[in-house]
Write a structure and sequence with these properties.
With 94 residues, this protein is α+β, with helices and mostly antiparallel strands. The chain has a domain at 12-22 and 30-75. 17% of the residues lie in helices and 38% in strands. It has helices spanning 28-39, 86-89, and strands at residues 11-12, 19-23, 44-57, 60-66, 74-81. The protein has a five-stranded antiparallel sheet. A hairpin with a 2-residue loop joins strand 3 (44-57) and strand 4 (60-66). It is globular. The chain starts with 10 loop residues before the first strand and ends in a 5-residue tail after the last helix. The mean pLDDT is 89.
Length: 94
């Protein structure tokens, strides 16, 4: 079955730590350029392709990184505060 296509739409999903992601596996550089547009002062890095399972949580949702074979898992491009290589993105202007 072919992978579904998701538009690149970055959203904040972190609580105590700054975390952003977009549904779908996107080009990592394109993803980070979009991240910088809205979250450039958050020191985000470590962009990677992961699989997420969304579960209900008090007041919203919890996004958990899981194995691709996990029932209900969906692809995401994901990065977090002070993730690997965050320094390189501090000087990027969209």
């Amino acid at each position: 079955m072919p992978e579904e296509k998701y538009p690149l739409a970055v959203e904040s999903v972190g609580g105590d730590t700054y975390i952003v992601m977009s549904r779908g596996h996107h080009d990592l550089r394109e993803f980070m350029v979009e991240v910088i547009k809205d979250y450039g002062d958050w020191n985000l890095g470590g962009a990677q392709h992961v699989w997420i399972k969304t579960t209900p949580a008090k007041g919203g949702w919890s996004y958990n990184i899981v194995d691709q074979a996990t029932r209900g898992a969906w692809p995401a491009t994901y990065c977090w505060e002070y993730g690997d290589g965050y320094e390189q993105w501090r000087e990027v202007t969209p």
